[in-house]
Amino acid sequence: MALDLVIDIGNSRIKGGIFDGKKIVEAFGLDARSFKKENLVRFFEQKPMQNVLLSSVNSKAESEVRSYLQQQKIPFHVLSHQTIKLILDVDEPEALGHDRIANAYGALSRFPINDCIVVDIGTAVTVDFIAKEGRYLGGMIYLGAGLCTKALNDYTDKLPLVALKKPDSALAKTTETHLQAGIYYGQLGAIERMIDELRLSALSPSSVKVIATGGATMIDDTSVCEDKAALAEDLKELVDFIDPHLTLIGLREILEETLKKKD
User: Fold this and answer.
1) What share of the chain has pLDDT > 90, as a percent?
2) Which residues contact 111 (CB under 8 A, 6 or more apart)?
3) In a designed cystine with 128, which of 94, 139, 179, 198 is the match (CB 3.0 to 4.6 A)?
4) Spatial separation of the C-alpha atoms in residues 4 and 128, rounded to whole Å
5) Which helix (H) or strand (E) holds 8?
6) Residue (of 159, 181, 150) closest to 168 by Cα position
7) What domains are there in the chain, each with its CATH number?
8) Does residue 127 contact residue 140 with C-beta atoms inside 8 Å?
9) Residues 6+ apart with CB under 8 A from 55
10) What is the spatial distance between Cα 57 and Cα 13, in angstroms, rounded to a whole number?
């Protein structure tokens, strides 16, 4: 059985999806900061990959992945701004991250008759608006929770580096829980406001579908929040749909589009 592989190389995580047609049969996540090309071996040992697509916003990790594929003589495609059908209706289309393009394809695949907002919560929080006719119209970038904790620790004398978790109460009683409450609820508040502002770009704001993806929805990624169940419940109040594999699904759509152009 020949399978397709898509790999999304991010700043903190490398995510991969193995597909049989449009069905995802396996997903994996690796730490991009300590990644070595040998980490990929087990995904190729017993799985013949027919087509491979790379997406990257991390040049160093991308180089390792490319090196492995080339050594193994595994042909691959790379997401390109020039060849996608999605219309990038922004001033700097070449600067738009591959992951955000993939999220747009994933959203259009999930909700083809609705305008969509995609909230991707990782090292940074990106919030993007995609029009149903296949146009990426723009979005926002905000600090992720991990960067907030690090910045407060790095740029103050007495504030500690805290674990990313939902505090027992919003009315915090210690320095540690003050930080946790501020960062946790600050993230949710920022996400809610960004969604509200982007809804105004739609002709029918009430019909917009909001999808969350990224580290906040990945079980094995604690870089966004240690208490994923609590965060997922709070996110459900802000979004219509949570899909941890949205980026991978979007990359699979791009791979299919790429292969059709080659035929």
Assistant:
1) 69
2) 132, 209, 211
3) 139
4) 27
5) strand 3-9
6) 181
7) 3-78 (3.30.420.40), 87-244 (3.30.420.40)
8) yes
9) 6, 7, 8, 9, 78, 79, 98, 99, 101, 102, 247, 251, 254
10) 11
End-to-end distance of the chain based on CA atoms, in angstroms? 21
Q: Which residues contact 52 (CB under 8 A, 6 or more apart)?
A: 4, 5, 6, 7, 69, 74, 75, 76, 77
Segment 183-200, tens digit of pLDDT: 999 999 999 999 999 999
CB 147 within 8 A of CB 124: yes
Catalytic residues: 99
The length of the chain in residues reads 263
Strands (E), 57-106: 77-78, 87-88
135-146 tens-digit pLDDT: 999 999 999 999
In the DSSP assignment, the letter for residue 193 is H
In the structure, what pLDDT confidence band is assigned to residue 123 with cuts at 50, 70 and 90?
Answer: confident
Nearest CA to 251 out of 38, 3, 56 is that of 56
Least Cα distance to 137 among 111, 106, 101, 112 occurs for 101
* 35, 80 contact by CB (below 8 A): no
Distance of alpha carbon 211 from alpha carbon 22, whole angstroms: 19
Helix (H) or strand (E) holding 19: strand 13-20
